[in-house]
Design goal:
single chain; mainly beta; Immunoglobulin-like; 8-stranded antiparallel β-sheet; two-stranded antiparallel ribbon; 1 helix; 5% helix; elongated
Length: 129
Amino acid sequence: MSSRLVVNQIQDSAAKNIDTTFVTNGSAKAWCSIDGDSTVNDSFNISGTVENGNGDNTYNITNAMENATYAVSGMSKSDDNGGVRAAFMQFAANQTSIATGFFRLTSQYDNTNVREAEYASTIVHGELA
């Protein structure tokens, strides 16, 4: 027999009530940390990554999102031995949309150059299917 817990609010030790929809809707639905070889260091709801090329990775979502309008953000760190420089991530140039079960990101250090990152992390917000 399975158990089920149904609550509308959660109360903290200071007697503040938090609506459970705030908790479920505001929590990350997936996140992932990878190194420069696209090896997953740690993750939640990400089953693995596929390296499509230097600085170009597909992230596979274990439990799919409800629709393809979820939000993805990410950051990466340069590995070009030129010192610690910031890098940014964006959807791959040839990708016209994201899917409910995966997304693809590239690490870049300027507007045109996709480069391998020493470290990259991503987070996903939205509704799970």
